[in-house]
Amino acid sequence: MTSDFVKQIHLETARRYQQQGHDIDYLVSHFQKVALDQDDIAELLTEITPKSPHTERNG
């Protein structure tokens, strides 16, 4: 299990990569290169992927 401190560092790195235009596959590749396990990768991806916007219906 990866420490929260280390996961936070990789999360910030992934967000910078996203800002630079890299896609999810690139982020997963980065996480695998730094030896994060699949559970940690899944956890980090849920934190960085955009949530679907909530829309209100009028009427």
Number of strands: 0
- Count up the domains: 1
DSSP helical segment count: 3
Distance between the termini: 49 Å
Biggest beta sheet summary: none
Please tell me how large the radius of gyration is. Answer: 14 Å
General form: globular
The percent range for helix content is 55-70%
Beta fraction? under 5%
| H and E string | HHH
How would you sum up this structure, described in words?
This protein has 59 residues and is an all-alpha fold. The chain has one domain (4-48). The protein contains three helices and no strands. The protein has helices at residues 4-19, 24-33, 38-48. Helix 1 runs antiparallel to helix 2 and helix 1 (4-19) packs across helix 3 (38-48). The longest helix has 16 residues, at 4-19. It is globular, with a radius of gyration of 14 Å. The termini are far apart. The model has no long low-confidence stretch (mean pLDDT 85).
SSE topology sketch:
Blueprint: H1 4-19, H2 24-33, H3 38-48
